[in-house]
Specification:
By secondary structure, the protein is of the alpha/beta class. The chain has four helices and ten strands. It has one domain: 4-Layer Sandwich (Purple Acid Phosphatase, chain A, domain 2), CATH 3.60.21. The radius of gyration is 14 Å and the shape is globular.
Amino acid sequence: MRLGVIADTHGLLRPEVHQAFADVDHILHAGDIGPEELLAELEALAPVTAVYGNTDGFDIRRRCPQVAELELDGFRIVVTHGDQFGVPSGEILHGEYPDADILVYGHTHRPVLTTVDLTVTVMNPGAAGRRTKDGLPPSVGILELEPGIPPRGRLLPLLPAGEE
């Protein structure tokens, strides 16, 4: 199973996301979505599990939880924006959700792909919307799930360095 991982779109769904997620089976959105129409655009690509972030309005908060827990291909996955923990990290999230195999979060706008406790995969896909204040390019993530082996992941910049 192939997952598209996205966060912090803030109302901007770049055309490059359609290409990056062309072959995904499921999309995880870790909050700060923007208008509800953005979710509909993602749902045209694949089923979406989304959570709300600190900048999302009441329409998104009515539709999406703050934390989503799901199982895909035998992996227990937790998706959260992470702002409820201040500055989230893999270690903090692992402490809160010790039974998760995969932890996905947003909020920091900084891409992260790492492991915690040797077996838990942690991904923050970075901000997929506008370029961040510190100049990081917009990015998304891809996770490949196959029962019985650890998840494989990669981070994909959506723009070459220097482009807007």
